[in-house]
Amino acid sequence: MSRSSKVVLGLSMLLTAATVAGVHVKQQWDQQRLRDGVIRDIERQIRKKENIRLLGEQIILTEQLEAEREKMLLAKGSQKS
Q1: Which residues form the signal peptide (predicted)?
Q2: For 24, phi and psi rounded to 5 degrees?
Q3: How much is the pTM?
Q4: Alpha carbon distance 15, 22 (integer Å)
Q5: For the chain, what percent of residues have pLDDT higher than 70?
Q6: Phi, psi for 2 (deg, rounded to 5)
C-alpha cells in the first residue's frame, strides 16, 4: 500500500471515529435536555397547583375581611341612629 493511500485511509478512519463520537455526544446531550424538560414541566405543574391553592386561600380571606368590614359599618351605623 502506498504512503498516500495509508494517509487517506488513516484520515478517513479518524474522521469516521470523530463523527461517530460527535453523534453519540449529541444524542446524550439531547436526551439530557429531554429529561430536564420533563422535570421542569413537573416543577411548573407543582408551582401552578400551589399558586391556585394560595389564590383560593386569598379569596376566602378577602371574603372574610369584606364581611367583617360590612359588620363594622352596620354596627357603626346602628350606633349613630
Answers
A1: 1-22
A2: -60, -45
A3: 0.59
A4: 10
A5: 98
A6: -75, 165
